[in-house]
Amino acid sequence: MKLVVVGVLYFAEGIPFGFIITSVNAYLSGLGVPPEQIGILSLLSLPWSLKFFWSPLVDRYGLRSSWIISAQVVMILCLLGLASLVGGPVTLSFWLLLAILCLGSATQDLAIDAYTIDFLETKELGIANGIRSGAYRFGSLAAGSGLLILSDQVGWRPAFVGVGVLFVALVVTILAFRSFRLPRVASEPAQKHESPLVIFRTALKGLGTHPSFWAIILFTLLYKAGDAMMGIMVIPFWKHLSFSSTQIGLVSGMLGSVATTLGGLLGGWYTSRFGHPGGVVGRLVYQPFRHRHLSLGLGAYPGDVPPGLLAGGPAWYGTLDIVPPAPAFCESQHTDISHLLCLPGRKFRGGYGVRAVHGLYDVPVR
After folding, report:
1. CA dist list (Å): 237 to 16, 106, 230, 241, 271
2. pLDDT tens by residue, 78-136
3. Of the candidates 338, 333, 335, which has an alpha carbon nearest to the alpha carbon of residue 207?
4. Rg (Cα) of the chain, in Å, rounded?
5. Count of the separate structural domains present in the chain
6. Residue 259: its pLDDT value, please?
């Protein structure tokens, strides 16, 4: 039963990410919204990277389930508001609703993560982590690629409402089953007055004593820059080549996710065989060739990009991501690095990625 609870909660976590990054992206591209405006999506998703700033509120006050339900209700209202705006001009109200939805999603993530840590025993964390990853990806695919396919069948307005209905079902599930609403685990007396911000500062201070501190920070900020620059601008490019939402959902979404999963398995094998440095070097060596392969392929097949090309990009994507933190770093330090890892992605996608996609749009369409 515990694993079912974990699966449902992390399925809920994945829905907003797939909806924003994939479905809303495709919707805006289909309306002909210019790339520089679509790049705003990455900036709106900053709450996912900066959510630790209000984590003390979630940690100190109220039940975890109350935070989860409240965040989901906020997202339901935002989704209904967005559905009412479908078909009209993309106004400031549209962007504000998206921003509030992202804020609600980040708050939901904080509460779910805290609940599962309280909920699970140490011996259950290993298998629960596998369930968590799979459920999150499934939720992201359902609200991303799945919604793209659905939108071709019923239109965007019913599709947006459908995501809201899905969240209503999740709220009812949490209210109906007590396993989702267990009380907090009592803290140790020494920990009761320790703010998460204090823990964050302590972890960062400890990381600062590492002899390679600045190399670690620089590497963390830059190693995914290549992915980030292409990131959110891929779907506008497919739309420019007249791909339907179903084609993007099936090939780029579904097949790309399979490639990413296989890349993670390949990266795990490679890293276990050649060590962490070998895994990092392999990922970095592959990345420029992957991007070059994509750009050459697009030039060679204007308007008729082969399916393998769309899915080939993520093949090594999981290599470095699955590398566990080194023993020298505690869990909170690894979390700090993870948050830093997301920040350049948001900025590159919203900035340089916009400039890059203007160059890509020069590819002729047959």
Report:
1. 22, 28, 10, 6, 33
2. 999 999 999 899 999 999 999 999 999 999 999 999 898 888 877 777 777 778 888 89
3. 333
4. 21
5. 2
6. 72
**Measured between alpha carbons, how far is 110 from 9 in angstroms, rounded to an integer?**
12
- DSSP letter for 78, please: H
Q: What percent of the chain has pLDDT over 70?
A: 61
Domain that holds residue 26: 1-185
Kindly tell me the burial class for residue 205, based on how many C-beta atoms sit within 10 Å of its own C-beta (0-12, 13-18, 19 or more).
exposed
Task: Give the pLDDT confidence score for residue 130 in this predicted structure.
Answer: 78
Residue 351 and residue 230 in contact, taking contact as beta carbons nearer than 8 Å: no
- Same domain? For 142 and 178 the reply is yes
Q: Which pTM does this prediction carry?
A: 0.72
Are 128 and 240 found together in one domain? no
pLDDT at residue number 326: 43
Of 57 and 307, the one with more pLDDT: 57
Rounded to 5 degrees, what are φ and ψ at 10?
-80, -20
Give Cα 92 distance to the centre of its chain.
24
**Residue 200 in 3-state DSSP?**
helix
Considering the domain architecture, whether residues 238 and 174 belong to the same structural domain is answered as: no
Using an 8 Å Cβ cutoff, are 294 and 312 in contact? yes
Query: Any long-range contacts for 279-286 (C-beta under 8 Å, 24+ apart)?
Result: 279/319, 279/320, 279/323, 280/223, 280/320, 280/323, 282/316, 282/319, 283/223, 283/316, 283/319, 283/320, 284/223, 286/316, 286/319
DSSP state of 83: H
The packing angle between helices 156-176 and 2-18, to 10°, is 150
